[in-house]
Write a structure and sequence with these properties.
Shape: elongated
Structural class: alpha+beta
Strand content: 15-25%
Length: 315
């Protein structure tokens, strides 16, 4: 009889342990341990923008707007809370190199739907329907801001509610010049410095490689929207990138850079004369489109002129 009682007690303890493991607690960042300081602090929109290139604002007609900030060595996180159409929302933004889930909501979602916003940002809608409440979350990546974003809402009944439409209703504003993101030093190394130094003049195929490099660097500058870059940040990252290159990589860059700048300038003044080599390289259509895009050419001018003034090439 005593053995049966001991077995019963042990089974009860094991079941209790499994139940505890299966219970989902609130995200750690939302419920700091007793005695630990709250990592969040209240802030203004201007303060949030000093830390994160927040690409959204609360939708028109919203109420009870409040901003707060979590500062971290892994990247600062800005959060906007507001009430709209009788529902409470939480929006977040964090500067990241690639899309990240910054919501702090780690559930086993019932539904998952991909979407594309009007500004071409791509994301995913998640939905969890329970007996007491329904939770919805939108995650998306804003490439212009270089920021991962989220918007979440929960209520007893969300039937007929469209959270993606709520994201679209948020006010999208042009980022001020001092908050426009710039490519990281590593991105500049991989997609700019090494691209320029990747070919060797006078060797077989160097003319084709030069045309391809010209198209790649102008396209890189355009894709980074450097026409509106924060110049001090860009110069700092350029210098950091340059210092991380090996001696050989610096030499290869120096050998090609000014010649490539003049080559691109020649293409802008006499494209028809140069079209043939770009056709042979398979990038004529792409290069012509870039040459006819004022913002793309201004972005390239910003990149090459700030490279020159850093003294990163001879002459």
């Amino acid at each position: 009889m005593m053995k049966k009682w001991i077995c019963f007690v042990l089974m009860t303890a094991i079941l209790a342990t499994f139940c505890a493991c299966g219970t989902q607690s609130a995200p750690e960042e939302e419920t700091p341990a007793v005695g630990m300081p709250n990592p969040w602090r209240d802030c203004t929109l201007d303060e949030a923008l000093e830390h994160v290139a927040v690409p959204f604002r609360a939708p028109e007609g919203s109420e009870s707007e409040s901003w707060r900030l979590m500062e971290s060595s892994e990247g600062d996180l800005a959060e906007l809370r507001f009430t709209w159409d009788g529902l409470d929302f939480t929006a977040r933004a964090k500067k990241t190199e690639a899309p990240e889930d910054i919501s702090g909501m780690y559930y086993s979602w019932n539904e998952e739907v991909s979407f594309t916003l009007q500004n071409e940002a791509e994301g995913t809608l998640y939905r969890l329907a329970g007996e007491a409440q329904t939770i919805e979350l939108c995650l998306w990546y804003d490439r212009q801001a270089g920021a991962s974003c989220s918007l979440s809402v929960s209520a007893a009944d969300l039937d007929g509610f469209d959270l993606i439409a709520a994201v679209e209703a948020m006010t999208w504003e042009q980022l001020p010049p001092d908050t426009r993101p710039v490519p990281s030093a590593q991105t500049l190394v991989d997609e700019y410095f090494r691209v320029v130094g990747a070919y060797h003049m006078g060797t077989a195929g160097s003319s084709l490689a030069k045309a391809k490099a010209a198209c790649d660097v102008v396209g890189f500058a355009a894709g980074q929207k450097l026409s509106g870059a924060h110049i001090p940040s860009l110069r700092q990252n350029l210098l950091q990138a340059w210092e991380s290159l090996s001696e050989d990589e610096r030499t290869y860059f120096d050998e090609n850079f000014l010649d490539l700048v003049l080559y691109i300038q020649t293409c802008t003044t006499d494209w028809e004369q140069n079209r043939g080599i770009f056709e042979d390289a398979g990038v004529a259509e792409e290069m012509e489109k870039l040459l006819n895009d004022p913002d793309a050419m201004e972005s390239w001018n910003v990149l090459q002129s700030n490279t020159v003034t850093l003294g990163n090439s001879e002459g």
